[in-house]
Amino acid sequence: MIDFNNTEVAFKLKSNKELKNAKFLFSLIRRPFIVHILGRLSRLALKIHLPVDWAVKPTLYRHFVGGENIKQCFHVVHRMAKKHVKSVLDFSVEAADSETAIKQTFREIKRSVVNTRLHSDIPFSVFKPTALTTHSVLAKASSHTTMTPAEQMAFNSFMQRFDSLCAEAQRAGKPVMVDAEDYCFQRAIDRATEAMMIKYNKKTAVVYTTLQMYRHDRLKYLKYLIDLANKHNIIIGIKYVRGAYLEKERRRAKEGKYPSPVYASKAETDKAFDEALQISVENHSRIHIFCGTHNEASIVKLMEYMAEKGLPNNCPTIYISQLYGMSDNLSFNAAKEGYNVVKYLPYGKIEHVLPYLIRRTEENSAIAGQTGRELIMLKQELKRRKKKKELKKESKKESKKESKKESKKEIVNRKSKKENRKSKIVNRKS
Ligand SMILES: Cc1cc2nc3c(=O)[nH]c(=O)nc-3n(C[C@H](O)[C@H](O)[C@H](O)COP(=O)(O)OP(=O)(O)OC[C@H]3O[C@@H](n4cnc5c(N)ncnc54)[C@H](O)[C@@H]3O)c2cc1C
């Protein structure tokens, strides 16, 4: 059984200054009121192009983001790799609003896919499909209404970009993951990802889909994917997450007067998440697993399912993953026991990653338990280091005292030897 409370292993790479920064951040973002105000201010700053670098860069950005570009992330990648934790570079643009922006984003994502070829410490790439086209095109393609010729053309471009990223992943020999986002876009994204898996996943999982297990239709969809894998003789790659847009989905469903796509309780989401992991381990010859969670109980369950099935900790088709800046106690302790662990490492300019950062703070304040846990761990580690430092000081003092005593003894010894010699000479003379 792994000790996920071992803070020495969890924070080995963090300096005292970094830990204090993290402690300050988490104590701030556990207060929903502050997060609410920060969120509103940041959104306003984004809207009116107010510079926020001075406030965000040394705090939130430094804690949750790897750098502005791929190159700047390398120091974090190499640092984590020393402790056997690998990285997935995630270009964190949430949505592009113009054709030029979409093209730019696509080029950057492609760079990140190609980049995996050069680095053994970056075993996957990832992208958000909403960055490859407009929301309206994805929403239309996901609904049952017919698209106009212009929309159809835009959707075809989306598919070409999607395909080109998957082809690049195949060339790189490293899988690419397709993030899941809002329910209203997901049908088109699912169909596109299935087509890519049929095309590229013949020998191994090149393309990974994402299943948000807070959706009550996802266990059924998992069974559909297993049938698809058997039918086409392919390997399905699946990233499992609980889902990041709970409140938004419920609100949209209420406004649009359709049934909520997400479970009514956390317990149901948890049950579905763990069941999906169990089914996937049972079918591990057909499913490659990427378990994205900060939930310790689910990780323990996955480890138990693996052990029951006789799979080794470092089973090459099973990965555990957390976001950079969160739950290091899970990542580094699991990696120490030989499990395959990767951190999602976001990168991008502040104005691009700000929405991601706002979501992280909102998520952390919404899951008070998680933030509380993070804080306890940070405090525990700072305390442990302080105690260690004090003990070191104490033992240094002790050894100084000892050596002083020793040298005093030495002086006395030498003096008495001298005295002895003198008295011998006197005796001989007499
Ligand atoms: C590596 C990685 C990749 C990710 N990629 C994606 C992605 O592509 N798409 C995406 O949407 N998210 C993604 N996420 C975020 C993820 O979906 C969760 O929001 C986040 O990880 C918190 O869930 P948890 O499993 O870590 O832990 P927990 O704290 O145990 O679970 C919190 C989650 O439980 C669910 N939940 C909470 N309350 C309720 C309730 N009352 N009823 C029903 N369900 C509830 C919600 O999904 C909530 O986020 C990713 C996370 C990680 C670590």
The overall strand count is: 8
Order of helices and strands: HHHHHEHEHHEHEHEHHEHEHEHH
| Shape descriptor | elongated
Rounded to the nearest angstrom, the radius of gyration is: 28 Å
The major β-sheet equals: 8 strands, parallel, barrel
Mean pLDDT over the full residue set: 91
Give helix % range: 55-70%
Residue windows where pLDDT falls under 50 for at least 5 positions: none
Instruction: Write the CATH fold name of the domain at 67-347.
Output: TIM Barrel
Q: Beta-sheet strand percentage?
A: 5-15%
Tell me about this structure.
The structure is a single chain. With about 425 residues, the protein is an alpha/beta fold. It has a domain at about 65-345: Alpha-Beta Barrel (TIM Barrel). The chain contains 16 helices and eight strands. It has an eight-stranded parallel beta barrel, surrounded by seven helices. α9 links the parallel β3 (about 175-180) and β4 (about 205-210). α4 (about 55-65) crosses α15 (about 350-365). The longest helix has about 60 residues, at about 370-430. Bound molecules: flavin-adenine dinucleotide. Flavin-adenine dinucleotide binds near residues 180, 210, 214, 241 and 292.
